């Protein structure tokens, strides 16, 4: 469990003190194993975001992650899918860039 704010940390501590939670430290390897699918999905983000940029659609910002370097670890087929799959979704959902007036 990770508290992302002081309030969250306080709630976790009170739950532990009251006996509702029992927590122990996890190793970095345990955390990475538990988040394996999340880490794999993150590899696809750069390609998806690049396709959004090419179509002039809004692109989220992810600070602190080297998305391009992660994307480079994908196979050629997966890199292609990250572009083309996202492009197909954009077309099916009829995403369009905002038109200036």
In short:
The chain has helices spanning 6-17, 28-34, 36-54, 67-72, 76-92.
Note down, in words, how this protein is organized.
There is one protein chain. The chain has helices at 6-17, 28-34, 36-54, 67-72, 76-92. It has 101 residues and is mainly α. It contains five helices and no strands. The radius of gyration is 19 Å and the shape is elongated. The mean pLDDT is 82. It folds into two domains: 1-34, no CATH class; 36-101, no CATH class.
Structure keywords:
101 residues, mainly alpha
What's the helix-strand series?
A: HHHHH
State the end-to-end distance.
48 Å
Number of domains: 2
The Rg value, from CA coordinates, equals 19 Å
> How many DSSP E strands?
0
Main sheet makeup: none
Which structural class do you get from the secondary structure elements? mainly alpha
Number of helices: 5
Mean pLDDT across the residues is 82
- Globular, elongated, flat, extended or rod-shaped: what is the shape? elongated
- Strand percent estimate: under 5%
Give the uncertain stretches in residue-range form.
Answer: none
Question: What fraction, in percent, of the residue positions are helical?
Answer: 55-70%
List the helices and strands and how they pair.
Elements: H1 6-17, H2 28-34, H3 36-54, H4 67-72, H5 76-92
């Amino acid at each position: 469990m990770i508290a992302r704010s002081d309030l969250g940390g306080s709630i976790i501590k009170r739950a532990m003190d009251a006996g509702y939670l029992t927590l122990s430290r996890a190793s970095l390897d345990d955390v990475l194993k538990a988040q394996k699918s999340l880490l794999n999905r993150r590899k696809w983000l750069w390609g998806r975001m690049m396709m959004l940029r090419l179509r002039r659609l809004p692109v989220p910002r992810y600070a602190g992650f080297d998305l391009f370097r992660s994307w480079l670890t994908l196979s050629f087929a997966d890199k292609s899918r990250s572009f083309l799959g996202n492009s197909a979704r954009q077309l099916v959902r009829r995403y369009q860039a905002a038109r200036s007036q």
